[in-house]
Amino acid sequence: MTKNKNIDTTAGIYKDNYPIISLSSDVIFDNYKNDLFFFLKDRVWFLSANNIERENIMKRYMSIISIMDDIKILIKNKFPNLEIRHISIGGSYLFKTERSNDIDFNVIVSGSHFSYTEIYEVEEINRKISAHIKKISFMIFGEEDFLKKTKVFDTIEVEDYIHTSLCMREGLVFSIRNIPVYGYLCNNIEIDKHNLLIRIKRQLFHARLMLEDKVDLHRNTDARLAKSIGRISEAMLYLSIVFTELNLFPKNIIEKEKELSGELSRENIFLWLEKAEKHVDFLFKSI
Asked: Does residue 139 sit in helix, strand or coil?
């Protein structure tokens, strides 16, 4: 790895606690294909949306499901020997209907594996779902690496930052963020609150670096500020879901994100970041 890059471990180290997630042996997505509300009903992004927004979310969800054969082909073309066990939407595409132009898929395959792939040749996908997507990404995990500690190298290094322990980072929030679109569903596993706080602390660390113009320098200033707001909002939403003693309200968080995204005031974004950091510091003292 290149020296002098910022790295997420600066903000904290995860404890080894497995399984992070596990897949059911018999409950599959198709069992609920005629009741998609089942997968949305407890997601705060959906619950906080108005009726029109919910309708748009459902339309997007159905459109993604309609192209799953194409999505599986994209994966198989890149990794023909992988056995796909699960695919879910891991990013904001469904919920930020006016501001998201890429689709992030989390994929679980048999065995031990980690890879991250971005695909920009998406004209055919756009035609089929009447969208304006610029990029589709696949973060692919081995099922084995969620169940026990392995030697998998689940790190992504970009120009000015190093993301580590991606199995832990993503697996921790599958149950409160991801929306399934194919394969076996995840079993219910209690979230490790300590590791979730480490994840949130790393996320806020990355947001602070963006606000200080230390990372993501390939983006222009407004894009970097907008990205930092998204990082803080997501962190605050995880806090609101898992640490109910904070009395944070998801709808207020989403409204705050929209407000800050409209004004892009660095000073006000910093104030929100500091509030989130204080919540995390308080929780570390209490668990």
From this structure: strand
Check residue 94 and give its pLDDT.
92
Does the pTM exceed 0.85? yes
pLDDT higher than 50, residue 1? no
Of 235, 232, 240, the closest CA to residue 209 belongs to 232
**What is 20-150+166-188's CATH number?**
3.30.460
d(CA 180, CA 186): 9
Per-residue confidence (pLDDT) for residue 131, from 0 to 100: 83
Give the mean pLDDT of 141-150: 98
Residue 160, Cα to own-chain centre: how many angstroms? Answer: 20
Instruction: Please tell me whether residue 163 adopts helix, strand or coil conformation.
Output: strand
Cross-strand pairs, 182? 87
Cα separation, 227 vs 220, whole angstroms: 11
Count CB-CB contacts under 10 A for residue 110.
Answer: 13
Per residue in 251-280, pLDDT tens?
999 999 999 999 999 999 999 999 999 999
Please write down the HEC assignment for all residues of 90-127: CCCCCCCCCCCCEEEEEEEECCCCEEEEEECCCHHHHH
Q: Tell me the domain boundaries of the chain.
A: 20-150+166-188, 190-287
